[in-house]
Design a protein that fits this description.
The chain is an alpha/beta fold. It contains 26 helices and 14 strands. Strands 3-5-6-7-4-8 form a 6-stranded mixed sheet, sandwiched between helices. The chain has a 6-stranded mixed sheet with strand order 9-11-12-13-10-14. A two-stranded antiparallel ribbon has the order 1-2. Helix 10 links the parallel strand 6 and strand 7.
């Protein structure tokens, strides 16, 4: 089949052999006659040219119907080499141009390792592959956790070429997706290479997370190591599986690797930063190597727009930009604005809140440097319960913590997450924590008592599933590496088994007169035109209002004064306070 592709003189030879001047390429009939002796051998040749046999299934040759016949038989079809195979036989190692930018070939000498740890199980699997049947290796983890780098590093170590195919990008090609991955498998076979199917999740059926049957069979048939790189877990429903499926989990990089990645990315962008500031970034933001690179690029772009060098504030903004959650209706993003000076609480409560920040800020020192993570089975993050009446400052405290840590805040209303349909609550919680594990944010679960009420005695199926929902959330909280804050108005509804699992429990008391006066003062900016008759001491002494109610009354009085075109007076404040009492279902004396 190669001969007529490289020398036209063979056209006449094939025409002579087939006794037909129009037959300038070898036909199926010619191959059967040349390679087959008796009937059995002729049939064997005929069978090897069928679509499901390797020559055609791997797109090595094509069969082209004789154009001179209206309905040619299979024997009358011509055999033609695929153009990529022609080039390969002539020594060209270029990847099939139909695959464009979706498939790359890397030789062992081309693959360079960066800051990445190769799991021991992966190294052992490659050693086994050199001696026995090579496995299919599922590299499971979030984007940027080093899955691709680990595959490259281990192939370089064992001198194996690597073909990488991006299944997500293949959807954009001009050829059918099935043909694209078949050609990718062929490229791997031509180069005797290991195969990395990147973005494996893109081919999984969304309903059952199953790969296409044809693709899975092709993967199983491929004789060398196949890496499947994705973030979804899957279990192929193949009772006749012949290859071992090895699963290797890639977690977010540890503090030391994050520190080194920040330093490398900053040096590449000519940004100078002290080790103290590097420590702040590496400890606060649990980013992957690729996210850190993107964060630095974002920061330098921000600084360049001002004509300046990147600052720590730019880097924090860049890190936040590449660690936000995609939670849609399940959460509300809050950009923290308030600091410690805005929080009016008893000193012992402020002290506990600062301890929460210290737990996150110095977690890598205690757990990693001092080795506590190897000795104590403790949660990697911080789980805190804020308990108190509505308006006592729970949301504000969560915002202050996020602001102090330089993190975004996501407010999640658990009453909206909880569903009456069995399994839906767990599904919603799974979405939240799957995103949260890949981001760096403070999670603030409001209305926690909607789910964390006293777990009831199991009397029916509904009670059993309600308890399972609580157990599922407790499990997720124990493995979450960030800050998760739960807010409740009804602490008495929480059982001891739940509160034992908390890192911190902070009671937000109803403000006494002293703190109510401070709250009144704090809600009026210095520019606000307060009248001479305003007596904030009297208001704080006479009216037992929580901080949220005081805020509402202060703002309402300002609008009333603006409408009257004058100063904020006691009359405006009394009117606003009356409205707050009406909202709470309380009545004031008529003479006030």
């Amino acid at each position: 089949c190669l001969a007529p592709e490289v020398d036209r003189r063979y056209d006449r030879l094939y025409a002579y052999l087939q006794d037909d001047v129009s037959q300038r390429r070898p036909s199926v009939n010619l191959m059967v006659n040349l390679l087959g002796g008796d009937v059995v051998e002729r049939f064997a040749v005929w069978e090897r040219l069928q679509p499901d046999r390797p020559l055609r299934a791997n797109h090595l040759i094509e069969t082209v119907p004789d154009p001179s016949q209206a309905t040619p038989t299979f024997l009358a079809h011509h055999l033609k080499l695929d153009h990529r195979i022609v080039l390969y036989l002539l020594g060209d190692t270029t990847v099939d141009p139909r695959l464009k930018h979706t498939v790359t070939l890397q030789m062992p000498s081309d693959m360079k390792t960066r800051v990445v740890e190769v799991p021991e199980t992966l190294r052992l699997a490659m050693e086994n592959a050199l001696q026995n049947d090579p496995p299919i290796v599922h590299l499971h983890g979030a984007n940027g956790t080093g899955r691709k780098s680990a595959a490259e590093a281990v192939c370089a170590r064992y001198d194996i070429p690597l073909i990488t195919a991006d299944l997500n990008l293949m959807k954009e090609l001009d050829i059918p997706v099935q043909l694209a991955w078949e050609l990718a498998l062929r490229e791997a076979a031509l180069n005797n290479a290991a195969l990395l199917l990147y973005n494996w999740d893109a081919c999984l059926n969304q309903s059952d997370l199953q790969p296409p049957a044809d693709l899975w069979k092709a993967v199983e048939r491929y004789p060398r190591v196949v890496f499947l790189s994705g973030s979804e877990s899957f279990e192929p429903l193949d009772p006749e599986r012949t290859r071992k499926l090895l699963r290797i989990n890639f977690s977010m990089p540890a503090y030391e690797i994050r520190f080194a990645a920040w330093r490398e990315a900053l040096q590449s962008s000519n940004v100078n930063l002290s080790d103290e500031r590097l420590d702040e970034l590496a400890s606060k933001f649990k980013l992957t190597g690729s996210q850190i690179s993107l964060a630095v690029h974002t920061a330098t772009d921000l600084a360049a727009s001002r004509g300046e060098e990147a600052t720590i504030e730019d880097l924090i903004s860049g890190a936040q930009a590449h660690s936000s959650l995609k939670l849609g209706r399940l959460a509300k993003r809050i950009v923290p604005r308030f600091a410690w000076g805005d929080l009016i609480l008893p000193p012992d409560r402020i002290e506990v809140l600062r301890e929460i920040c210290a737990r996150i800020r110095y977690g890598h020192v205690v757990n990693d440097s001092w080795g506590f993570s190897h000795r104590v089975a403790a949660a990697p993050g911080v789980t805190a319960l804020f308990a108190g009446e509505s308006g006592t400052g729970k949301t504000l405290a969560a915002e202050v913590i996020a602001h102090d840590l330089g993190l975004l805040l996501y407010k999640i209303d658990l009453s909206a997450v909880v569903s009456k349909y069995i399994g839906e609550t767990e599904k919603n919680l799974s979405v939240i924590f799957d995103e949260a594990h890949q981001s760096n944010a403070v999670l603030f679960f409001d209305e926690a008592d909607a789910l964390f009420g006293k777990r009831s005695e199991v009397k029916d199926a509904h009670d059993r599933y309600a308890n399972l929902e609580v157990a599922y959330l407790l499990q997720q909280l124990e493995i979450y590496e960030g800050v998760a804050i739960l807010a409740t108005n009804l602490r008495q509804n929480l059982d001891e088994a739940f509160t034992r699992r908390l890192s911190f429990l902070v009671d937000f008391p109803f403000p006494e007169r002293e703190y109510r006066e401070k709250l009144w003062v704090s809600h009026f900016p210095s520019e606000a035109p307060l009248g001479m008759d305003v007596d904030l001491y009297e208001l704080s002494d006479r009216f037992s209002l929580a901080g949220g109610n005081i805020r509402n009354a202060a703002i309402a009085s300002a609008y009333l004064a603006a409408a009257d075109g004058g100063q904020i007076t006691m009359a405006h404040l009394r009117h606003a306070i009356k409205r707050e009492h009406q909202k709470m279902g309380r009545l004031l004396d008529d003479d006030y």
